[in-house]
Amino acid sequence: MLSSINYWAVLVTGVLSLVLGFLWMAVIWAKPYQGLMYGKKEDSQLDVSKSTKIQSFVIYILVSFVTSIAFAICLELWRAGGQAFGYDGDRLLNAFWFTMLLVAGYTLPFTVGKKVWQFKSWVVVAVDTSYEIVRFTMLLLFFWFWQ
A Pfam family matched by this chain, by name (predicted)? Predict the structure, then answer.
């Protein structure tokens, strides 16, 4: 199964996940997200060392690559299942709804957990969840069209 993965697409989507995350959380939704997630005021900075920031970046890029590989495998299994179980695994729309099912099943517990266990705002949940929807849609499009 691992031999059928497009590792160039994994590399690109891993990096693009970082770029998308930065744009989503630090540019597009910066004011509501950062204030509610980190308790930041508009003009304050998080007091985080440079080495901690580098460590966070490295960990997130590794997790992004793992996510891309896992999604690529799930997508291939879903396509193959279409042949075995009689659904059309070769239609992009069907693959999109499969992707949304994965987002609902595997990311919602973590994003909603921020409200339930960390007592963050529903705005944080909405920004994180919408990021995951956009990110997984990006993954789908890359792995679907870049074969």
Answer: DUF1761
